[in-house]
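Postdoc handover notes: sequence design on the structure in folder B. Input C-alpha cells:
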C-alpha cells in the first residue's frame, strides 16, 4: 500500500483520504460564502478519531484564492470571516476570556516555516499596558494579549512546548492561540487554506518531525490552533502520480527511497508573497477576534 506516504495536517484532506463522508463520529458541513468556502468537521468520539487520525474536536477550514492576489475589499472580507470563526471558537472554549497568549511557531529564516513568527510581529500586544498605562490599554480596546515566538529546537536547545509552558505559567492566560505552518497533500491547498481547531497542535507532525504537543492537557488551558499549509511532501506527490497511473503496489526499491528520508518538501514559487500576505491576514484577524467590543 502507498497510503502510508501521505502527509497532511488538514482535517479536510484526512476526511477525503479516509473516505469518511459518512463515518460515525465525524460531522461535516460545507458552505460557500462568495469566494470563500468554509468547511466544518467535528470529531465527536473515538471512532471519528480513528477514521481521520486526529484528536476529537472542531476543525474549521477556510479556502480561498491566492491571498497575494486579493484586493483590499476581498482581503477585508476574508479577515472578517476568519476573525468571526476564531472568536466563536475562543468564546465557546472560554466564555469570560480576559487574557490570551498567542504563540508563533516556526523558523523565521525559512520562508515556508515563517508564517507563525511573521504573524506575531504584526499583532497588537497589550498585556504590559494594563500595568504601565491602564488608560491606553482601555483605549486600545483589546483583551490582555501576550505574544511569544519560541523559535526552533536547533536555535534554542529547548522544546517550544517547554518555553510555551513556562510563558503560560507567568502570563496565566485563559487560552492559548498557536499560529503555525502546516503540511498539505495537495498543491492547490498551499497558501490558499486556513485551518482553525480547538484540539491543540503537535508541531512538525505534518513533516515527520513531531515535537511535544501543545494542548489543554499539557498547558492546562484551552489551546486553539491557527494554521496555513505551506509545504507538500514529495513522497505524497509521487504517491498521487502513481495512483493516477493505476499503480497501487510499490517496488521494494521505491519503498526504500520513500521511507529512508530521501523525500523532501515542496513549497510554491510564490511562497514569499504568500507568507507575507497570510501573515497580514492572520494578524488582522487575530486583532479583530481579540477586540473587547464584541
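Designed sequence:
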Amino acid at each position: 500500500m502507498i497510503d502510508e506516504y501521505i502527509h497532511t495536517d488538514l482535517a479536510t484532506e484526512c476526511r477525503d483520504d479516509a473516505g469518511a463522508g459518512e463515518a460515525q463520529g465525524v460531522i461535516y458541513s460545507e458552505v460557500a460564502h462568495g469566494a470563500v468556502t468554509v468547511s466544518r468537521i467535528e470529531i465527536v468520539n473515538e471512532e471519528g478519531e480513528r477514521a481521520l487520525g486526529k484528536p476529537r474536536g472542531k476543525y474549521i477550514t477556510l479556502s480561498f484564492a491566492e491571498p497575494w492576489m486579493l484586493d483590499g475589499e476581498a482581503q477585508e472580507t476574508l479577515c472578517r470571516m476568519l476573525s468571526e470563526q476564531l472568536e466563536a471558537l475562543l468564546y465557546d472554549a472560554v466564555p469570560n476570556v480576559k487574557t490570551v497568549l498567542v504563540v508563533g511557531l516556526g523558523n523565521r529564516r525559512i520562508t515556508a516555516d515563517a508564517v507563525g513568527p511573521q504573524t506575531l510581529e504584526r499583532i497588537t500586544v497589550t498585556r504590559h499596558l494594563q500595568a504601565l498605562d491602564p488608560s491606553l490599554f482601555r483605549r486600545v480596546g483589546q483583551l490582555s494579549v501576550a505574544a511569544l515566538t519560541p523559535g526552533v529546537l536547533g536555535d534554542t536547545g529547548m522544546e517550544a512546548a517547554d518555553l510555551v509552558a513556562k510563558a503560560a505559567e507567568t502570563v496565566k492566560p485563559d487560552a492559548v492561540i498557536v499560529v503555525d505552518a502546516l503540511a498539505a497533500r495537495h498543491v492547490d491547498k498551499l497558501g490558499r487554506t486556513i485551518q482553525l481547531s480547538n484540539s491543540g497542535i503537535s508541531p512538525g507532525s505534518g513533516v515527520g518531525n513531531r515535537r511535544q504537543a501543545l494542548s489543554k492537557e499539557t498547558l492546562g488551558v484551552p489551546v486553539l490552533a491557527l494554521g496555513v499549509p505551506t509545504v507538500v511532501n514529495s513522497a505524497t506527490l509521487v504517491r498521487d502520480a502513481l495512483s493516477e497511473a493505476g499503480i497501487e503496489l510499490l517496488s521494494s526499491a521505491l519503498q526504500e527511497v520513500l521511507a529512508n528520508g530521501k523525500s523532501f518538501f515542496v513549497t510554491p514559487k510564490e511562497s514569499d508573497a504568500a507568507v507575507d500576505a497570510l501573515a497580514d491576514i492572520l494578524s488582522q484577524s487575530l486583532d479583530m477576534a481579540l477586540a473587547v467590543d464584541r
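Context for whoever picks this up: The chain has a mean pLDDT of 88. Don't rerun without checking with the PI first.
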